[in-house]
Amino acid sequence: MIPDIIREIKERGYWASDKYKEERAKPGVSHVRSIYKTLSWRVIATTDTFIISYFITGFFSWAASIATVEVFTKMFLYYGHERLWLRIRHRRPW
Length: 94
Description:
Blueprint: H1 2-12, H2 18-25, H3 31-57, H4 60-87
Helix pairs in contact: 3-4
């Protein structure tokens, strides 16, 4: 059985196998999950940015301004990055 699978992978590639086609038919990661993941990461990352900005500048208002701006820019960048990575087909089945 394993030699058959190896031969199939070599001939058609992992992504062409019937098992992969069945798995792709199932629903993937939802957009809502990606949004929740984006928001939870933004809380962690923005707190980090605020702390670093405060230590560098010494001003609470500057740190808050920097953290506020980066919340919006990086939230959209992260969401787009997450969704693009879900589209990538890796050549190995891990």
